[in-house]
Amino acid sequence: MAEKTVSKLPYSYLFNSHSNGVIFAVRGGQIISFMTSGGPSISRWTHPDQLKMTEAEPVSAKRSSSQINQKEAPEVAKETTENLERSTKRQRTEEPESKAAEEGSKEAGIIDDGQSETAEIATLMTANEQKKNKKNKPQTAVQQDKPIITLLSVTSDGKHVVAVSGHDKTIWVFEHDGRGKLMQRSKRTMPKRPCGIALAQDERTIIAADKFGDVYALPLLPSDAVAKGPTLTLAVKHKRETPAATPLTVHSAGNLRALEAQKRHMAERQKQQEQERAAVVAAARSAGVDAPEAPMFEHSLVLGHVSMLTDVIVARGSSQNQSPREFIITADRDEHIRVSRAPPHAYVIEGFCLAHKDFVSTLAIDENRPEIMVSAGGDAEVFVWDWQNSELLSRTEILSVAKEHFGAEKIAVSKIVAAAGQFFTICEGIPAMFILTLEGKTLSTPSTIPLPGNPLGIAIVDASHVLVSIDGHGLTSIVKSGITWAVNSGDFEDSNADAEAPEVTDTEKQKLLYTVESMRKKVVDFLASQEPNAEDLSIAET
């Protein structure tokens, strides 16, 4: 059996705090901060679950080695004894058969009875051995998901950092001191794993989308005066804590009695939920694990979708007479891009941007051209939109460039970031960065910058300086000098951060970091393979 290749988990998600000159890089369950100028890390925040796993590894290694040493000799002796017993039993069961052949047909009935009895005994013995083997078989522990930060965002003033840990579906908010150090301010667990986050309403509200189609609005900094009770839990978000009616709005005696009964019912329901919560906490403590936290935080469900969401951004429309209105733009696996108003009027759908034939994985808007949106995913092209009017302006082929340089048969765009009219694009599994320049309403033919490995994350320092996290090569600076781009590795080497990085197999790394291509529907590939090419059509016509 071939040995599994084990390596350090690489950096994945990147985000630049422009106001502070700090780059935040994700590595598993860690958020590591660097100065954009380079050098070793200046601070690290580690997810509590990763700390637990790191502490448990040496203990489990010692326990497993001691158990093997203690059990190895008895198991060998036991196995030898069982083999001797089986051979003795086999001889006993074979004796009646040899005697039956010698005595002849007169004692056939007696021999048959003996054989059936022996078979029953052998069957019972086999069943007992199977039960013993099941009891002696070591129980396999349930393997926990590896802690990993999947999303990251920073406010424009650099004072707060928002992160999402995918394995426990939690949104974290940190206070940033401006020098790379993070201090936790809040921890809120969502019912489903968020797949996209954005900041709205002057960056006071977090917009969080999950793959099940729901989009929630949460305050960046939760208030300490949040009312307690089931009304603010995501599980019962549609239930009220108190009746909508009051004694001032109800006048008849019958309605007053009904109102009092409704109040008693709600009080009993709240008491029952508190008791159930206490029972869950007690059971978790007795089992030695952390109790699941009830989502008792301020929130609101603002959007719903039928399709699986893949990305969300907040855009600002143009307005001459008043401040620009905010819009929530969502992308999904079913080729849709939807434009909705931001809260409190999120129920108003402004339009759809429809032209993709495969999944949409990423959206981008350049702050210098806020009326233009660029989208990409599993299609061969990158799309340019007038998103306010749901109008497709142009599309630019990128698959042909990837095929020419790297032999790619299909692409899965994982991320697009924009700066100064340039859209920097990376694709899953293709060791290159593509640069597309916005010229009017179209994108130029992509410029290709080969990389030493597969890019996993990208962040813009400025229009001539880009940082890319590369699988197997750490953080890499890509700097423009004149008209050429130079790839500079080794600017962010940190032996301490490398030593703390968790080890993963290639299969685990693929599952954790290479997830975009998996959104492609198998039926799309099948239908594409069934389409006739030009030669087939010409033959059919003749």
From TrEMBL:
Keywords, in A-Z order: Methyltransferase, Nucleus, Repeat, Transferase, tRNA processing, WD repeat
Ranges: WD repeats: 353-395
Q: Which SUPFAM superfamilies match?
A: 3-carboxy-cis,cis-mucoante lactonizing enzyme
Which stretches does UniProt call biased (Basic and acidic residues)? Answer: 72-106
| Subcellular location(s) per record | Nucleus
State the residue spans of region: Disordered: 53-113
Q: Which InterPro entries does the annotation name?
A: Trm82, WD40/YVTN_repeat-like_dom_sf, WD40_rpt
What's a single GO BP term from this record?
A: tRNA (guanine-N7)-methylation
Pathway, according to UniProt?
Answer: tRNA modification; N(7)-methylguanine-tRNA biosynthesis
Tell me a Gene Ontology molecular-function term this record carries: methyltransferase activity
An example of a Gene Ontology cellular component annotation for this protein is: tRNA methyltransferase complex
Using the record, list the residue span of the signal peptide; answer none if the entry has no such feature: none
**What job does this protein perform?**
Required for the formation of N(7)-methylguanine at position 46 (m7G46) in tRNA. In the complex, it is required to stabilize and induce conformational changes of the catalytic subunit.
Q: What family classification does the UniProt entry report for this protein?
A: Belongs to the WD repeat TRM82 family.
Q: Enumerate the PANTHER family for this protein.
A: TRNA (GUANINE-N(7)-)-METHYLTRANSFERASE NON-CATALYTIC SUBUNIT WDR4, WD40 REPEAT PROTEIN 4
The protein's name is tRNA (Guanine-N(7)-)-methyltransferase non-catalytic subunit trm82
Source taxonomy lineage?
Eukaryota, Fungi, Dikarya, Ascomycota, Pezizomycotina
